[in-house]
Write a structure and sequence with these properties.
Distance between the termini: 48 Å
Largest sheet: 5 strands, mixed
Helix content: under 10%
Shape: globular
Strand order of the largest sheet: 18-1-21-20-19
Number of strands: 21
């Protein structure tokens, strides 16, 4: 009797595993809404906080919102008039500006900050050389920027690339928005980037002109969230899941992640900087007035 139960249990496990593998194969290059794993997919809907977390100086705009968590506080980075803005918050909602000196007098076009297991990396472009993405490491105090490398000029990005939070041992991967769509490049841990990057095979029903804002390493792969074009009538987020072992493989994609409590006249210009803080996932978005608002996944 015991042996019979053991056989039945093994048969059930084998059937479940086969069903799971069949389902995973069906995700490749197709749009799905739910993955059969414990991790929620995707995050959202996000809730728009009406009160700005950080407002620009008179006559200016804040762009490229990014955030990282350090020692129980959230550090927010953005660009204003081509210069870096650094602000700090104890609650993730209200930020206070800090004096910023990253040792660069170049005009910044855009910026993305990625927190990895042992380091915080920044990718950015400058007005003087927009065809190259520069990569730098932040020190432990997030006050100094140490350049590492730059990408080949042949990539011709339309915005800075987003480094993916790959675990140790998987090398580096970056999603790059171009005029032809999203591309992906991979490199060794020395960041020896190739001369070209490969287009991602995305489902045809996804919006064009996606701009990646933040990414999350999860059990089923790397979740990447992108902003729809700013001229969209209903600005929302689009999400992708990329295979950890081969980020060129799109396991799943979903568009139309809602931003609730967003007034109809408030568009979502761009979003970035996902952090886990006090039991919530928080991201940050720039509104039409150039101020930065919190997007809370609750």
């Amino acid at each position: 009797m015991t042996r019979r139960r053991t056989i039945d249990r093994r048969q059930w496990l084998c059937a479940a595993l086969a069903a799971g593998l069949t389902a995973c194969r069906s995700f490749r290059g197709s749009r799905v809404d739910v993955l059969p794993v414990p991790t929620p997919w995707p995050l959202g809907p996000f809730r728009w906080r009406e009160l700005p977390s950080l407002e620009p100086r008179p006559g200016e705009r804040l762009t490229s919102p990014n955030a990282v968590k350090l020692a129980g506080r959230i550090h927010l980075f953005a660009i204003e008039a081509g210069a870096l803005v650094h602000a700090v918050s104890d609650d993730g909602e209200r930020f206070e500006r800090r004096v910023t000196d990253w040792g660069s007098s170049e005009t910044l076009l855009d910026l993305r900050v990625t927190a990895r297991e042992r380091e915080v990396l920044a990718t950015y472009r400058t007005l003087g050389d927009p065809d190259r993405i520069r990569i730098a490491r932040l020190d432990e105090a997030l006050s100094e920027l140490h350049p590492i490398t730059e990408t080949p000029a042949g990539w011709r990005p339309t915005a800075t690339g987003l480094l993916l939070p790959m675990p140790d041992g998987y090398g580096q991967a970056m999603i790059v928005p171009t005029a032809e769509g999203l591309h992906l490049a991979t490199s060794s841990r020395l960041m020896a980037w190739p001369s070209s990057c490969s287009p991602l095979a995305l489902p045809e029903d996804l919006p064009a002109g996606l701009r990646p804002g933040f990414a999350l390493y999860a059990r089923q792969g790397v979740q990447v969230y992108a902003t729809t074009p700013t001229d969209s009538e209903t600005p929302r987020l689009t999400a992708l899941i990329l295979a950890t072992s081969d980020p060129r493989t799109v396991l799943a994609a979903r568009s139309g992640i809602d931003i609730t409590d967003r007034p109809a006249e408030r568009s979502l210009e761009e979003a970035g900087g996902l952090v886990r803080f006090q039991g919530r996932w928080l991201a940050y978005a720039t509104g039409p007035a150039g101020s930065i608002h919190v997007l809370a996944d609750e």
